[in-house]
Structure formats: C-alpha cells, structure tokens
Write a structure and sequence with these properties.
By secondary structure, the protein is an alpha/beta fold. The chain has helices spanning 10-18, 30-45, 107-117, 164-180; strands spanning 2-6, 69-73, 80-82, 94-101, 134-140, 148-149, 152-153, 186-188, 200-207. The chain contains four helices and nine strands. The strands form three sheets. A four-stranded mixed β-sheet has the order 4-9-5-8, covered by helices on one side. It has a three-stranded mixed β-sheet with strand order 2-1-3, with helices on one face.
Length: 210
C-alpha cells in the first residue's frame, strides 16, 4: 500500500490559528506524524493491529504495518493511495511480493521479499541467482530511535552534520545494492509505524517470464 499525504506548512498552521484551532505538531515534525498516522491507519484497515490510542502515535513503535509505504509532501492537500498486489487470472509476466527488513543490515529480508514475489532462490543467494528477473526493489527505512543496531551503538541520530535520514537511506541502499548486484533501488525514509524499529517494509517486482 503506497500513500502520499499532506504536510503542515506555515500557511496551513496560520490558517488553523486564524480559525481558533491548534495543530498536532510543529511544521518540521509533521512528516513523521503524517507518515506515522497513515501507516497506523493502514495497519488497522488491514487487520494487522487494533485501533491505537492517540498517545501511541509516533511513540509506541511496536505498532506498525508490514505492508505500508507512506510518504508525504507539501505539494498536495489530499491523500493519495495506490494499492499494489497480485490477482489470479490477471495474466502478465510481473509479480509483486512483500516482506520486512528487521533492521538496516537485514540482507535476508531483501531475499525474502524476492522469494515472496515468486522467484526461487538458494538458501544463501547471490546476485547472480536472480538471473536478471528482478525488476526493482522498493524499501522504507528509519534510523533506530533506540540508537542501536544489533546491540552496537550507532550514531545516525547524533551526527550534527548529516541528517539521520541520509545515513539510513545510504546504509539501506548499500545493503540492497550488494544483495541484488544493482544500485538501481528505491529507498524511502521516515518509516514511522512502517515496519519494526530501525527496519521497514520491502517490496520486490519480478519478471516470471511468459
């Protein structure tokens, strides 16, 4: 489930205040809130979780969707939703699969999503095992808010020069490129309530042939 939702802007905040209302967060925090609430909404709609409490939004990160990929931007003021899936009898040569990366180093999660899409792989795959059948991989990721990665301290959230989104995107993009032998991967950040702590949903499209 791919979504695009609005963000707060200075103008929208001022408009709300002009009507005597307040907003849920500051402008710069609205991406996480927009993505996170949408991710939780998808999880509820698909029966992955029960309805969360308001105070759990962007706080209880044990609540997440394993199939949501949520993005947001100032360029729109209505939500956009795209549902991708497979349908028996639809025909065609392409199939889509989904899985989750448990953390930024979860290379097995990438191979799991390719298997889920329909390609058979050995127990320990290599890029050449894909035989050119992988069309592309799409993944969401997030720096682990606990400041750790596999029981090691990580500094993504503490770097004063580089935003943690850039760190996470580079790390996950490198792992994905190494897994499939191709740097043409799509990595999106701000994965609030999309996948587990420090990880995120992954999607693969494969070509199964005629």
């Amino acid at each position: 489930m791919q979504t695009k939702t609005p963000l707060l802007t200075i103008e929208s905040v001022q408009a709300a205040e002009g009507r005597g209302h307040t907003v849920a967060c500051e402008v710069h925090d609205s991406m996480g809130v927009s993505n996170g609430t949408t991710g939780l909404g998808i999880a509820v709609a698909l029966g992955e979780i029960s309805m969360p409490k308001a105070e759990e939004i962007c706080r209880n990160l044990d609540l997440y969707s394993s199939v949501a990929s949520c993005s947001s931007g100032v360029e729109l003021d209505q939500a956009q939703i795209v549902l991708m899936g497979n349908r028996d009898g639809a025909g065609g040569r392409y199939r889509i699969g989904h899985a989750v990366m448990r953390d930024a180093l979860d290379i097995d999660g990438i191979y799991d999503v390719i298997r889920n899409a329909g390609l058979e792989l050995p127990e320990r795959p290599r890029p050449e095992d894909l035989n050119g059948r992988l069309v592309n991989c799409f993944m969401k990721c997030e720096a682990d808010r606990r400041g750790t990665l596999r029981n090691r301290r990580q500094i993504m959230l503490d770097d004063s020069d580089v935003h943690h989104h850039h760190h996470a995107k580079a790390a996950v993009g490198g792992v994905a490129a190494a897994a499939i032998g191709d740097p043409a991967v799509f990595v999106s950040v701000d994965a609030m309530h999309q996948g587990p702590h420090g990880g995120g949903p992954t999607i693969a499209i494969v070509d199964l042939g005629e």
